[in-house]
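Researcher: Next entry in the queue.
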Amino acid sequence: MALSDIGRPEVLRAVEEFDRLGRDAFLRRYRFQASRTYLLVVDGQHYDSKAVVGAAHGYLAGQRPLTASEFSGGRDHAVKLLGALGFQVVSQESATDGGADDLVRRIARLRVAHTRTGPLLYQPITLLWAVGRALRGEPRTLPWGETSVALGGLLEEFGLRGERARPGYPVLALHHAGLWTLQGHDGPVPHAHGDASVPRRWFAAQQPAGGLARPLYDLMRTSGQARVEVIQTITDRFFEGLDEVPLLEAVGLYDESVAADLPCGPQDAPPPSATADPASLAARYDRLCAVVERREESRRGRRRERVTRDPIRSGSARRAVLLRSAGRCENPTCGGQPDDVTDAGDPILEVDHIMEIAADGRDHPSQMIALCPNCHAVKTRGVTRHEVRSTFLEVVRELHERARTRVTGPGDGH
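Model: Structure for this entry, 414 residues:
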């Protein structure tokens, strides 16, 4: 039998075996090396495409598995076969388990159509909608009918550069970029370009379920830092000259909770502030500060109330201060903070602006401090509050510079 005799059932049985054995054992059993170029994607998980096809051949009646030496040309044979059977195959570069850095780089490289006024917002709107769903813990995938209605409404309301209510376009583009999973369809997935009727007919006929690829969904669900970096990367690239706030509000991302880490489950390890090494915490602090500064810069010239009430910036700044504090009150004369913790396992600390925003204070970690309840009460209501504020400004400036110097080294300009 030829490779062309392999069907979806054989491939899915090989995938099940891959899951059961684990990647290393599966590759050893079938004598394949790890894929260097192409990966099969099934339900958001990645599999070595050539090894899966070789194993699938063994599930044909009367046939044995193929070894790596028995067929060649991963792109022309295994990849072509899998695509013809309706499976998604992505390059290693498109795999979505590389963490926040990899995701931010690939969002910055998304290929989108442009108008005279800037890039079209189909893919950015779709991504922000899906990130909001992940933050709220909503199901990763939705039937096409529900996706079409939700995205169609957002595109119609927030398509600020003439976008039409055609949700199939961004979904197909993100699917082929390795960021979106489509399930429950037969045959290959069309591309977003070309005849406009092709995507519409394909979705009408196939009605696939879809959503963010599993690693991306998990990252957007749990990591506040990754979430704010993705949001800022999208708004930096696609919304120059536009007001993204109404869209962020509509998809549930214009809130301080957007910067908070969320646990994956009840057995998770303690928060990163209690366990991570100092260099890692310093790097996270620096990146959160960078998000705060980028939002400050991108929002210059807007109405004063819009600038002072930016919850994404505030949430990022608060998260940075809590990381810097390492779980301890930052008042150098603190008499002792409570040893108890919150229900989420976090230290009982309150992040406060040393100078209020209304009094020209800055929503930035260099002017914010983590205080235990007692020290916070002294700072806000004590008769010595004016003196301690002056002291706190000096303390926090030193803490802030020290935290960023750990990352950049002396003399790097921060």
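Model: The first strand starts at residue 38 and ends at 42.
Researcher: Noted, moving on.
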